[in-house]
Amino acid sequence: MLGLNSKDFTLFLVVVVLVIAAPILLNPFPSDSAFAQFNAGYPALMQRFVIFGILVIGFNILFGLTGYLSFGHAAFLGVGSFAAVWMFKLLSYNIVPAVLLSVIVAGLFSVVIGYVSLRRSGIYFSILTLAFAQMMYAIAYSDLLGKFFGGIVTNGETGLQVYNDDPQILMSPGDPTVPHLFGWEMNSSFTWDVGGWSFVFQNGYYLSGILMLASFYLAIRIFRSPFGLMLRAIKSNQNRLAYTGVSSRPYALAAFVISGMYAGLAGGLLAAMDPLTGAERMFWTASGEIVIMSILGGVGTLIGPILGAGVIKYMENIVSTINDNVVHGWFAFMPDGIENILVTVIHPFIGKGWHLTLGLVFMAVVIFLPGGLVEGGQRLGRLFERRKVEEKPPTATTEPAE
Amino acid sequence: MGILEVKGVNKRFGGLQALGNVNLSIAENTVHAIIGPNGAGKSTLLNVLVGKLIPDSGSVMFDGQSVLGRKPHEINQLGISRVFQTPEIFTDLTVLENVMIPCFAKRDGAFRMHAIESVGHEVDIKTQAETMLADVNMLEKSNMHAGSLSRGDKRRLEMAMCLVQEPRLLLLDEPTAGMARADTNNTIDLLKEIKAKRDITMAIIEHDMHVVFSLAERITVLAQGTPLVEDTPDNIKGHPKVKEAYLGEAAH
Amino acid sequence: MDDIILQILNGLDKGSAYALIALGLTLIFGTLGVVNFAHGALFMVGAFCAVTVQRLLGLSHTIIDESQKDFLGNPLKIEVPYVEGWFGPEMGQALISWSVPLAILFAIPVMIILGFVMERGLIKHFYKRPHADQILVTFGLAIVIGEIIKANFGANPIPTPAPAAFSGSLDFGVWLGFAENAIIYPYWRLVYFLFSMVIIAGVFAFLQFTTFGMVVRAGMADRETVGLLGIDIDKRFTLMFGLAAAVAGVAGVMYTPILSPNYNMGMDFLVLSFVVVVVGGMGSLPGAVLAGFLLGILQSFASMNEVKSLLPGIDQIIIYLVAIFILLTRPRGLMGRKGVMEE
After folding, report:
1. Is C50 on the interface with A (CB under 8 A)?
2. Going by DSSP bridges, is the β-strand pair B201-205/B169-173 parallel, antiparallel, or unpaired?
3. Cα gap A70→A290, rounded to integer Å
4. Do chain A and B touch: 3 or more Cβ pairs under 8 angstroms?
5. Which chains touch B (3 or more CB pairs under 8 A)?
6. ipTM attached to this prediction
7. Is residue A324 part of a domain?
8. pLDDT digits over A306-320, tens only?
9. Cβ–Cβ gap C343/A122 under 8 Å
């Protein structure tokens, strides 16, 4: 179906269902229960799930397939956001030109940066991309372009946003004053109250979700295409590939630009959800976060990037809000002494310390589970299957020994 | 007029004359071996043939076109395939994918943005690759990871990857280096089999005499960067100059 | 002219820090073949060793001084550091004042032990894994170390002054015949530069003149052959890692009066030090030192007002521009050897 084999199609269908039903699935606890703070089904967080999903899906096309580890990918996200906000400032709050321009601008940047960086491989490539990204961050953070040409380009520390006196030449009087798709406002939503639950279905989330599904679909096609096969061959053995008659650099550059455009799309969408941006989106820690997401989920797998982005964004938004009182609540049934010890032990890993948890989880994945959560799932699956086989009586026909 | 013509090639590294006035002509549909003791310039010559080293003077023409200074993928597209000392294959991919890549390269050239079509729908390419694998008796291993193959099978796979492109010249760089006697004999049999089935020109760079005399139809002996003699294996065997080149060194 | 000298001097202390970190990075890369993204964190841990020592020496107890009264007429409570009680007031004050240099004594064993634990416990298992994996795991480690420091010391920079004896500045220009106050250079920065020269010279001498250093250099050139000779290279490499960690640590200790340490400083320095290593040439020790000073000085030139008015913000991007330029024109860096990190 849709040009996918049945396994990929099933996977795609599962993701479609998850995206559609997320506002319900991610809200398992009634709003007034003690666990309500673990609900992730609110629009601002769900938007991040799908937008960062797009970003990491794109990153995975580069890193997962070709093995080139870019440590500066957030730069493309950043230029995407800046391009989108500029469209809001100049034209109108309609997101179509904004998102289109962010993809195009990020694509142009990645052609230049990719062309230069791909002349080196391995660690040198990583450092080159890092250097380019840090340079772009420095330029954006102190608005060097603005100082150079006069006026504002990135607006430095303050960040770029839309002001009332901006031209917005395509804006007619009745138009919404928030980002919208031909009048369909991104931040308006429909709330469905049922029992103790309240589910929020937001336009912006669904638009990002649809674009994420489209990106995911395209990524599957790329993975299964001859182009994708060549990219995997680059990762495996460039020397053999060259002597097979294939020039690996245009392939790698194409992958770099595609992933850069994915990042631009994500950046444009971030701005479309909330029409402001700043240089910190391009800082190297943001690039590091992309790398962490993709490793955590499973490099080179289809579903891994979505998983990785989801887990990290969940931790960032949920684990960081757990405080000592909450933990006291969990262990209240225990004797006071034990309760206090437990809280003391857990304390460094929650709330503001969630980065520590992140670092430890990330290290554990790199050390023990190089294939990320996807590999973890597969191992569990195999374990489960083996159990099942053991429970069955041994069959008479065994596989012939080799 | 041979398919590969090397004329007056010189190459110096600092004070060392690695290649001195090398002339060599490889005729179509022959197995031509280039032998010589260590340090005779075999590797340098090979690097010149694949465009990696540019000689100080002289020319290397393949079917009327110069190969000098060309990139590896351009060399391949002229019709030259290469087998390495240690098999160079795509260890992360399956055996079938390994053979499909050269098929794509042959059909699509150095770069083609084939990003939406599915590999699974490329029936022609798949048939071509499977026919080749059947030809080297590896069809039943199609779905194995190439990295998990035995060393002999890796060599076989690499051979298949080269042959599926129907190269006009197959360069073999010490194809049995570091192999046990049994593996060496298997490789010799494989090459003989390949030669029997199709018209192909092979240039073998080798120092193992057993391999050379089992396969070659013409032999060039290289010593101190210069071709000493070029003749049939039978004539080479008793040639006094060859004995001197090898034994003379051994006598020291 | 005096401007130029001033900028060179200003670049020296930053360059010294870059050089010291890059030196350790190169040692680790050259000997162990590991790209250590946690090296900046070691520099930062060193800086916090200084903070720790300062706090330890400053530990005090309250006594009631009957001879002094506060404005209500009650006896004044004063804090007296324990060291003053043990060594007498003068000696005690001196110890507190000199806490940064003293912290070196504390930092060296701490860093060596930390280095051993890192190498034996984690990095050892990554020798055979791809460079990307090494980058990732050490990157994770850097996050963890940073967060542990943050949990214990907070997120704000902690001022850690230099000994009072070095708090002034040197009027360097007068020596060279310029007008007074034309070239002012803080004493501590001079100390830092001299200190780094001593450390660098020490490391080079160690590698040049000891058997241990010879084996390490041989190992850097060709790891497998040295292994075949029956020399237990792994044990030596562990020591090497400890040494590199100690170099980064003491570099961090001494840097605290120049830049108040916070848990993020490691990463800032790491990114720049990597650029330094790449510019100098991966695996070349002299290259790392040379590039460290070169880039430090270049950076301070780029922050001159004359340059900045011409090209605003060039000071923030100059290092990266140079790195990109060098990598594209001299892929092996200024002094890189052939065959290092090349496929």
Report:
1. no
2. parallel
3. 10
4. yes
5. A
6. 0.90
7. no
8. 999 999 999 888 888
9. yes
Three-class secondary structure of residue C45 per DSSP: helix
Domain residues for the domain of A113 are: 18-29+41-284
Residue of A47, A400, A339, A57 lying closest to A209 (CA atoms)? A47
- Residue A290 within a domain: no
Summary mean pLDDT of chain A = 88
Report how many Cβ contacts below 8 Å link chain A to chain B: 107
pLDDT score, position B252: 42
Mutate to test the interface with A, among B94, B116, B122, B171 (most CBs of A within 10 A): B116
pLDDT over 70 (residue A399):
no
| Subunit contact B93:A233, Cβ cutoff 8 A | yes
Asked if B122 reaches chain A (Cβ–Cβ under 8 Å), the answer is yes
Report pLDDT digits (tens) over C206-250.
Answer: 888 888 888 777 777 776 666 666 667 777 778 888 999 999 999
Residue in A with minimal Cα distance to B113? A227
Could you read off the pLDDT of A210-253 as tens digits, one per residue?
999 999 999 999 999 999 999 999 999 999 999 999 999 999 99
Burial of C230 (0-12, 13-18, 19+ CB in 10 A): exposed
- The 3-class SS string of chain A reads CCCCCHHHHHHHHHHHHHHHHHHHHCCCCCCCCHHHHHCCCCHHHHHHHHHHHHHHHHHHHHHHHHCCCCCCCHHHHHHHHHHHHHHHHHCCCEHHHHHHHHHHHHHHHHHHHHHHHCCCCHHHHHHHHHHHHHHHHHHHHCCHHHHHHCCCCCCHHHCEECCCCCCCCCCCCCCCCCCEECCEECCCEEEEEECCEEEEEEHHHHHHHHHHHHHHHHHHHHHHCHHHHHHHHHHHCHHHHHHCCCCHHHHHHHHHHHHHHHHHHHHHHHHHHCCEECHHHHCHHHHHHHHHHHHHHCCCCCCHHHHHHHHHHHHHHHHHHCCHHHHHHHCCCCCHHHHHHHHHHHHHHCHHHHHHHHHHHHHHHHHHCCCHHHHHHHHHHHHHHHHHHHHCCCCCCCCCCC
The amino acid occupying position A72 is G
B166 Cβ under 8 Å from any chain A Cβ: no
Average of per-residue pLDDT values in chain C: 83
Q: What percent of chain C has pLDDT over 70?
A: 94
B90–A251: do the CB atoms touch at under 8 Å? no
Please check whether residue A216 lies inside any domain of the structure: yes
- Mean pLDDT for A288-310 is 92
Sign, CA torsion A97/A101/A102/A103: positive
Q: What would the pLDDT profile of A131-170 be if each residue is shown by its tens digit?
A: 899 889 988 988 888 877 877 888 888 889 888 888 888 8
pLDDT value for A387? 75
Nearest to B204 by CA among B194, B191, B186: B191
Give the separation between CA A347 and CA A355, rounded to whole angstroms: 13
Burial class (CB in 10 A: 0-12, 13-18, 19+), A337: exposed
Confidence of residue A401 (pLDDT cuts 50, 70, 90): very low
Helix (H) or strand (E) holding C341: none
Mean pLDDT computed over C149-167: 84
Tokens of C342: 């090349």
**More confident position, B15 or B126:** B126
Structure tokens at C132: 């990307």
Structurally, how many domains does chain A consist of?
1
Average pLDDT, chain B: 87
In chain A, the percentage of residues whose pLDDT exceeds 70 is: 97
A370–B contact, CB cutoff 8 A: no
What CATH number matches the domain at C2-58+100-329, 1.10.3470, 1.10.357, 2.30.30, 2.40.10?
1.10.3470
CA–CA separation, A110 vs A262, rounded Å?
A: 11
Is there a contact between B110 and A5 if contact means CB atoms under 8 Å apart?
A: no
